[in-house]
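Work through this:
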Amino acid sequence: MNPISSSTAHCCHRWLRWLRRIRESVTLFSLLVLFPTLAAAQTASPFDTGFNALQNLFTGTIARVASLIAIVIGGYSFAHGEPGAKRTLAGVVAGTGIAVLAANVLSWLWGV
């Protein structure tokens, strides 16, 4: 083998080794960038959906139905002159406000 071809082969071998290192580095960098992104894709807890459903149920449907029943009963007691009916209606109004607006008050106070 003449010295020129040996030098060329050595240069090609060095070049291929450099390309292999670059390819490994790019692969490693891609994995390091891609996997944290995939891991961060799920930002919510698996319990969040269930708890949000319960929150909507208790501060929505159940609170409105219970408030309606309490207002009707308080109205009947006020209409029939029961003692303490005004106090009962005031408690119903306060309880209704707390039950229906609980989520809004929590987010207003603590940003929950």
